[in-house]
Amino acid sequence: EALLNNGLNQKIPKSIIFNTWLNANLKFIDSLAICGNNRFLDKYDDLNETIKLNNIKDNNFEARLKVAEAFYLSFSGDIINSDKILNEIAKTSYEKKLDPKILSHVNLVLIINRILIDDFEYINKNLLSFTMFADNTNDNFSKNMLKSILGLAQLKQNNNQKAYDILTEQLKVFVNDKIAIGALFCWYLIAKLSLKTNEFEKALEISKKALNIAKNPKINNNIFVILYKILIAQIYIQTENYTNAKMYHRQEDRYDPAL
Asked: What share of the chain in percent tops pLDDT 70?
């Protein structure tokens, strides 16, 4: 109440200001979840407490918050509870009249969970329909992430050229739209593909540049910082540069996801 009355334009209804504040905080929580940042926990609890104190009843907002929680649990390694949350959202979506975009986000996290447990049978079965659903609901973020995951699926099937073509095309989209997590994902897979085809210099160049981007304070994606350090160490091992490989492994050992 004090915040709403402190120096704000009194012509703007408090309800609009409050809803803007809620949505801004939800977007911030989304970004923390995607980056695997442990600050998510406190911010998530704070926003949940705000919802309870103000007796907010908004099925779409609550579902979006639960999707963010599922995303965070996925990157924390708790796939079982992440799936439980996602399946519950999908199960009650008709009854709660949820925005179809939320279901599209659910589909994306379900696919990411299958990547994390290496279940490509599920991915290959559902990827096309999930991508079409994202396109039909104008969920461009999920659509382009799912297209990038198609590149990963092709990489797993040793269709290297097809994987490269998909990933480079999607990389252009993410760079153009300034979607950091999408670009980091594509660079990572392109670097992995380059390592697979023994293009060590290319793999190392991409990985080091992408690592610096992931570490940039404006992006600060802890998940990809870890992934790129591990990948760089693997590249050095492949080229028998064990000194540098050990250095990147040591950096990873000192890494604190809460920072």
From this structure: 92
Distance of CA 76 to the CA centre of its chain: 12
Q: Which residues contact 96 (CB under 8 A, 6 or more apart)?
A: 59, 63
Residue whose tokens read 């994902």: 185
CA distance 137 to 143: 9
Contacts of 71 (CB under 8 A, 6+ apart): 30, 33, 34, 82, 109, 112
Indicate the SS3 state at residue 256.
Answer: coil
| pLDDT tens track for 179-195 | 999 999 999 999 999 99
Q: Token pair of 20, please?
A: 């803007």
CB 186 within 8 A of CB 167: yes
Nearest to 66 by CA among 111, 106, 116: 106
What whole-number distance in Å separates Cα of residue 126 and Cα of residue 106?
13
C-alpha dist (Å) from residue 226 to 140, 222, 223, 233, 259: 27, 6, 5, 11, 13
Tokens of 129: 């329909």
The amino acid at 135: D
**CB-based contact 89:98 (threshold 8 Å):** yes
Check residue 247 and give its pLDDT: 85
* Residue of 174, 178, 142, 176 whose CA lies nearest to 67: 142
